[in-house]
Structure formats: structure tokens, C-alpha cells
Amino acid sequence: MAKKQERAAADTALDAAGAVIDMWRTSNRVMVYFIEHLPDDLWTEKVPGTPRRTVRMITGHIHNCRCMWIKMIGGKHGLDVPDRVDRHRATRRQVVRALRRSGKGVERLLKFGFDHPKKFTVFPLDASHFMAYLAAHEGHHRGQICMIARQLGRPLPSEVTSGIWQWSKRAKEL
User: For the chain, N or C: smaller number of CB within 10 Å?
Assistant: First the structure.
């Protein structure tokens, strides 16, 4: 009976890990969708109140943060770390490609965290909490960009603002 319970617990843990990784994939797709659909003229706009920052720089920051975490947690365990982007010069196409690469890198990092929880040491919590942290960080920046567009008198089209909430649709796009 004990072995049966152990197998059931292991199966539940695998199901949970798979669900968290699926959630990450959808979250990444939402981020890519958002950047793909930003109006072209917004890309180089300066952030009101912080004129040395642009929308481009915020999107590059998202990718570069992912790279930092992959390197800090997984680099010493052999996980490939995607190249960072130049936040000052990256094109939208480059950022989108980079986010797809770092999205896969985060998937590998999450899988590593579930497979080796004792080695997932830099972030103070487990892989599930780490995924939630990343999703919250990226949601913050999506909201920030939406606010910047409003402050500039150019609110984002509803295709963009409603599109980031259509998680079922974004998940099917995977």
C-alpha cells in the first residue's frame, strides 16, 4: 500500500510540474503576443517621467531578466543561457525572437527545478513560486507599457489590451 501511495504522490507531483510549465508557456505566449501587437510608433517612445527609458528598453529588460535568472540558477548546472539583447537598439523582431528563446530557457529551468528541487537554490522558493514571480514581473511591465501609451495620449488598441487576457486563445496558439 505504501508503494502505491508513493507512486500516486509522484504522479501528482509530475502533473503539477507539467501544469506549471504549461502555465509558463501560456504566459510567455501572452508576452510575445503583446509585443508583436504594440503599435510601431510606441516602440521608441520615451517613458514619461523617465526620458532615458523607452518602451523598447522595457521589453528588452524582460528578456534580459529571464536570462539573468537562467544563468544564476541553471548556468552552474549546465543549462544553456540565451544571449541578452541590447535594450537600446533591439528591434521588435529581435525582442520577439529573444523572448521565444528565453521562454524555452525558462521552461528548461522550471523542469530542472521540479526534477532537482534541492539544487534550485538561488531563488528562495520552489519552481512553482518562481514561475509565479516571473509571470507577475512580466504582467507588471505589460501594465506599465499600457499606462505609458495612455499617458502619451495613444491608448493601445483593444486587440492588444483584450488580447493579453485571452489566455485560452493564447494557449491554443501554442
Answer: N
